[in-house]
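Sorry to interrupt, but I need a hand with the structure work. I would like you to pick a protein and set down its sequence and fold. Please put the record directly below this note.
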Amino acid sequence: DTQREVYEKIFEELDAAVATLTEHRTSSISAAADKVYSGDIEKWIKFANSLKLRMAMRLVYAAPATAEQRAKEAVDTTDGKLGVMTSNDDNAQLSGINVNPFYKVAYEYNGGETRISADLLNYMKSWNDPRISAYAKKSTFTDAVNDYWWLRIGNEYPITSGQAYSNLNIGQSDPLLWMNVSEVMFLRAEAALYGWDTGDTAENFYRRGVELSFAKWNAGDAASYLSSQNRVGAYNDPKGQYAFVPDTKCVPAWNSLDPELQLEQIITQKWIANFPLGHEAWAEFRRTGYPKLAAAPVNRSGGDVADGKFARRLIYPSDEYKTNGVNLNRAVGKDLSNGGDRLSTHVWWDCNPKLVNE
């Protein structure tokens, strides 16, 4: 199946699920069998519609008519429809798990190799973001100031050096986030930029997204943050090797004049609020070019990705060529004909005209 066909099928299955669940919306399932919503069917409906909205916005450049249609369907609340998530009570997260996988990679795998990106820290520190302490623990340097110091993407520090940087602030049995209402508000903000969502203005959805994220993390009132005109400053690596200055004019306070800067603000705040969902962050970065990130300081792509640019996809593993070569080559021919099975090849929906040469 092509990527387009997969998306169409998922839309179809989400619609079918919403229809079936809506028929039984006043019923319930056993809370013991539902580790996400404790048996609340209406919350599953909102989650399904929220996923539909996420998928719709992914297709803004690849299939704009489909994106608009599906976005409008997702947020529709006429005739008794429930629409999408509206509060933190609607957040989809898996509870009752023994080991959160983010905890595992941060604290158990090879002694803990995962650290938070310096890009994210730099935005949050520059903007005095109170969510920092909820996201991370302080560094553990013996030869530098212990503060919130996160690690530049593509660094070549030894593992033991990297492990001194700030780790995730996460417990072993903490719920695993699937999707939160803040993301939904930022999706609606982007849709409103295009005139697709008449429920409110892009600015109000943007502000609501930030406010809901602050509430989720018990970070206090977001009013002063949302009025901040602080620019993002330089990141000074405490170990001295990987400093950078991001090329962005983005600030938390809404820009009322520049639609492109508004889009950057929406995606950047979504990136912050979606922590630690890195796959979603990467997808939106590829789709929009936002947030503005520091490129890897050393290019290890073997010439596949140009210096200063970023990978657009992951290549297929060698075992897939050995065990599923026929289907793999068919898929490459259908969907990756613009570059083949390479890191630099854009997938179907990654076709923003401003980023075609990235």
